UniProtKB/TrEMBL annotation:
<dbReference type="Pfam" id="PF13360">
    <property type="entry name" value="PQQ_2"/>
</dbReference>
<protein>
    <submittedName>
        <fullName>Alcohol dehydrogenase</fullName>
        <ecNumber>1.1.2.8</ecNumber>
    </submittedName>
</protein>
<dbReference type="Pfam" id="PF01011">
    <property type="entry name" value="PQQ"/>
</dbReference>
<comment type="similarity">
    <text>Belongs to the bacterial PQQ dehydrogenase family.</text>
</comment>
<keyword id="KW-0560">Oxidoreductase</keyword>
<keyword id="KW-0732">Signal</keyword>
<feature type="domain" description="Pyrrolo-quinoline quinone repeat">
    <location>
        <begin position="42"/>
        <end position="328"/>
    </location>
</feature>
<dbReference type="GO" id="GO:0052934">
    <property type="term" value="F:alcohol dehydrogenase (cytochrome c) activity"/>
</dbReference>
<dbReference type="InterPro" id="IPR018391">
    <property type="entry name" value="PQQ_b-propeller_rpt"/>
</dbReference>
<feature type="signal peptide">
    <location>
        <begin position="1"/>
        <end position="23"/>
    </location>
</feature>
<feature type="domain" description="Pyrrolo-quinoline quinone repeat">
    <location>
        <begin position="425"/>
        <end position="509"/>
    </location>
</feature>
<dbReference type="InterPro" id="IPR002372">
    <property type="entry name" value="PQQ_rpt_dom"/>
</dbReference>
<dbReference type="InterPro" id="IPR011047">
    <property type="entry name" value="Quinoprotein_ADH-like_sf"/>
</dbReference>
Amino acid sequence: MRKSGLNVGFALCTALLLGQGLAMTGPSQDELNNADQATDSWLMYNKGYAGQRYSPLDQINTSNVAQMQRMCTFETGDDGGFQVTPQVYKGVLFFTQANRTFAVDARTCKALWINKYMMDSPSVLTTNRGLAIADGVLYRGTPNAHLIAIDAGTGKQLWDTKVADSTVGYFLSAAPIYYNGKVFIGEAGADWGIKAHMYAFDAKTGKKAWTFDLIPTGSQVGADTWKKADSTVTGGGSTWTSYTLDTATGKLYVSVGNPAPDFAAQYRPGDNLFTNTVTVLDAETGKYDHHYSQIPHDDKDYDTAAAPVLYDVDGQKRLAVATKAGWLHGYNEDSKTEVFKQAMIKTTNQEKPTTREGLPICPNYSAGSQWSGPSYDPQNKMLFVNSVDWCGVVKLGEVRLIKGQLFFGGSMQLDPAEKAVGNTTAYDAATGKPMWKYELPSIRIVGGVTSTGGNLVLAGAMNGTFYALDAKTGKVLFKDNIDKAPIGGGVSTFEIAGKQYMAVAAGNTSKGTAGVKNVGSRIAIYSLK
């Protein structure tokens, strides 16, 4: 097994030397429109605009996945949050960390270039989940709330746009998406008392094209759901992970997280739109179209954090979204109605208000479905979702805003980590009915789930185990531990020169509550020998 690890100094030299010979002009808009069905690439955080995290590739399948082997490993030398899904175009694997962007050969793990972004202001959180790629350019957010463009062939920075003030808690953790000349990204930082927005930027210049206020005021739709006008100044509403888009309608789907302060809901009476919703906007203009609310007036930090998935089943256009509250919601996009609401884990005391004495709840705010949403398998008409069953106690506390500090208005005490149970569960995509469940007691499963035409379900756990399940039964067909590096990222799969590969992001060590030791971040690439 080959390994590749580079320190920063050598990596930057490599960027200059190797980047000169790497030609990259795509993907085109047509390629991006076809990304959900493509077999030679994985172009977005959730593969394509529909967010289905499904590849029709079937060279590796239920009959031979047990023979799969790790071909190479690229070690970044960093620890901390590592929650990307490796993105692939023209045989090059792209991924991000806090302030570095990598281009790596997708077959050999050889570094092609590494870009290091020099931040000019501090950040409250450094997690980054990925990038957009179009016309030879990469776009990503930074921990200090800038949006930057990078030449995909050389790693050279092209432009840098300041989006918000990171010193008061704003940052950009989401993987943006590109569509028709615009780059879409929203702010995170609700837990620090920010007021979030969704943006479109001109892809060539970085100039802002439009802004949508995720905490509405004045005459904006939803403003009347904030009964105390002052509370909108610190209303929250992060967009944490990535976005979904319907190319047939030009509609942009934005999962919006919790209001702030997180637990002291009495400070912000009302339903608090657009927090804890999937909000749908016109991608060209930013104009509001419609929304689906998962939890009005949230007082337990139960974000709608993961991007939704769009799919067609039984002649209906559907949307499904999984939340930190432990629910899988299904909606009919034609009638704009909820079709199902299925509990994925224990859901206890969610309707009861938080108290100063403490309210036991299930799940806690580190459980449910965090930054990873469903995968839709059109062959079997199933949704596959990763979730964590883990409880805790929430307590009300002082509501006090201090610049750059958490603005919870209380606290959350998590149950011991060994009580957490990680799950990969299959659901009927039409009804939301559970079909099978794979459980890992005392081990969290928080990364992305991927399904394939080979009837495989691919995911990883926080003990470092990468596994493949039979899509029809949930039977374990393959397991390999990636150096005990906690897997908080996703699995992508792609074909190069007629051979199928899988890439796994491991080494997510940002969650100390998991009781894991820090193991550096790494990309492991698998295939049949």
